[in-house]
# Entry
Amino acid sequence: MTRYIITGATGGLGSQVFKYLLKLVPEIKSSGVEIRRGDYGDPTSLDSAFAGGDKLLIVSYPSIAHELRVRHHKNAIDAAKRAGIKHVYYTSLAFASDSVAAVMQAHIDTEKYLKESGLTYTILREGIYSESYPLYFGFFDPAEGKDEVVIPYSDGPIAWVSREDLGEGTAKIMGGFQNETRLLSGSRAISLKEIADKVSSLLGRNVRLVVSTEDDYVQANLGKHGPRGEEEFLRKWVTTYKALERGELDVVDPLLQQVLGRELKPFEDTLKETLGLHSSVMEQYAK
# Structure
């Protein structure tokens, strides 16, 4: 039986992949599931974590810190080679191959390293999580009571996709797609202006989106809790909106819907579910 190694199995995406693998490969339950400790920052721990595996899912390290992120990903790829992994699946991001977004640069470097590693690979450019929309929607938090959302450069659109749909699709794709780079996007693109309208309707108050300058965006967020209130982080995150201006996330690919064989979860459903959970979303991704 094929042995699967899922990194980040307790995280948002990894847990969804694991859940659907259990459904897709019933033999996993009968043969047993082993929980192992693995730390991308500790290569030795990866040797034992990956031992005996056939297919490995490397869930990307959640940070915008370029050098740290690339180093962690290279550690995982190198460990996969040492462990004799037959096929590596890597969760990249849905920006363009020549992206101007800072958050994509570590993915571009990792993709190149994986392609040159000699391993059989599949690079999955995962679409932007619907659940993460506050990061793009000016770190909006309805509890703050502010009805003006400031962003720079462009309001999108973005082909949002739910994390659960991505988890199920990724699990199903782990049966093939050798040495390919594939995009898993939502089935339609929605702009941040449209999100402002949807949020206004759901909250019963007028939430206004303002597309302004980079400096105005930075000033609007300085001092907020965590990295999202720090100028260095904000200046890097601003490049995301430059990517939106180029249309990098306005790309709809039918693959995920085809793999799932059904309609994807509407963005509006996720929006309703997450409106009260913004602080946890920002804690998870804005670092």
Remarks:
- The mean pLDDT is 94.
- The first helix runs from residue 12 to 24.
